[in-house]
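Researcher: Please predict.
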Amino acid sequence: ITLFNHNFCFAQTPIKKIKEFNAGEIKAATVDRLGNFFLVLKKGRIQKYDANCKLVASAKIQPDLLEPWFHPGIFSFSRSQKKIIRYGRHFENPVSTELDASWAIEPYLVTVRADNHIWILDKADASLKHINPITGATVSEFSIDTTQFLTRPNFTHIREYQNMLFVLDQNSGILIFSIFGKQVEHIKKAGIRNFNFVGEELYYASGNTIQFFDLTTETTREVKVEGSNQFALVTDERIILIDDKNRVRVWETPIAKID
């Protein structure tokens, strides 16, 4: 098993296409820390593939947010049902938790924390709440400064990574907060469909490039790739590209050690 290691960086171009397929209309895509990748299909199914593109698990669910990073569990959130569900690594043994009405007025996005607590984005007041779902306690709470937006925000995704919280507004870009609620960065780029992490970097697809943002140095770089893509996933062995026609292309990628 190969884990992501921040002591490595990626070659500037993929070197060999190993697979190409169409899984259907794709709503979202993400990876876990072992290099497996997940496709959330609009027809109401999630497919999990290993690094060799073998389908290893599938589930008939349609979450509003999927977070498989904290292996081996898979976390999902359903907005309409107002509940979170935790699965085993093959979507077995689901454990549901209903969101208590006292936690948020309008729970719009929910993600899992490294300590298995949750973050809730309350759309009613643009606040972010750290909740202990076992005790029901609100551990902390802070508000997003909405005066910074030129247009009404369209929040579509949140994630915690390396003691930071990331909020995607498709109209303005990615907001980055410290775990204590201070906004430390705003990556201003409209139209981002999703983002992910590898090592010390955040990345997202942008046309025929993958844009990288170093969380430590705040430096940026880009990798040019084939075609124009709505989603891109990066692991220590693969780059997975998903274009506007839902064509999935998986590339082998060499890694080079940082000097």
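Model: The mean pLDDT is 92.
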